[in-house]
């Protein structure tokens, strides 16, 4: 897939640009391959710079309001300045690394509603920056992440929603300016529990897993025992029965609070 548009900053006779992703499916830590094609217009034009980046549509909460913001969280320059001749196609191939913290956008083979992450292309021309449309990227879970998602499914939890929120989760290895929350409806056996929210914060060796139980609108404070954070190896996760682990924690917290 790709976009094609007239470079707005150059006026009549300007070039057009199209970005094509060779394979939009990727996992955190992987690489998205693609090509930027600039079609020369009726006049020669000097391109001062070309870059591709990853952009996320993130929820921002303030004391007074809530709104969405586009955040470019990883960017790569593609060479220096060059000139596009009239009618000539200038093609630049790229391999854009996907940060380990990048949120998951796919779940059970389907797109997660509200997860808008993709490649955006920017050209600097005539002292202006012209951004292209978003080419969606399908970010699939790492095997360790999939193991936890499968554990929730095995316990009867159902996917409710997912979002990306600007801010930081305290006590984690988070470097990006936002994080993902995946929320699940609780099954009937966990009476009194509405949902559980799950967040992953990964690097190339392990990840922080953050779980919060939601008994009613609004989550409990971080200091309560309905919040749990633990580290999970990206390689050694197979040694743990994650469904049993999650069930034990839920039973302990629910028993203390007389929910179940």
Q: Which descriptors would you attach to this protein?
A:
2 helices, Immunoglobulin-like, 10% helix, 2 domains, five-stranded antiparallel beta sheet, single chain, 260 residues, mainly beta
Topology of helices and strands:
Blueprint: E1 2-6, E2 16-21, E3 25-26, E4 31-39, E5 45-47, E6 49-61, E7 66-77, E8 82-84, E9 89-97, E10 106-107, E11 110-111, E12 117-125, E13 128-131, E14 135-136, E15 138-139, H1 143-154, E16 158-166, E17 178-185, E18 195-202, E19 206-214, E20 227-233, H2 242-256
Parallel strand pairs: 3-15
Antiparallel strand pairs: 1-2, 2-4, 4-9, 5-8, 6-7, 6-12, 10-11, 12-13, 12-14, 16-17, 17-18, 18-19, 19-20
Would you kindly provide a written description of the structure presented here, covering whatever features stand out?
This protein is 10% helix and 48% strand. It contains 2 helices and 20 strands. It has helices at 143-154, 242-256, and strands at 2-6, 16-21, 25-26, 31-39, 45-47, 49-61, 66-77, 82-84, 89-97, 106-107, 110-111, 117-125, 128-131, 135-136, 138-139, 158-166, 178-185, 195-202, 206-214, 227-233. Strand 10 (106-107) and strand 11 form a beta hairpin. It is elongated.
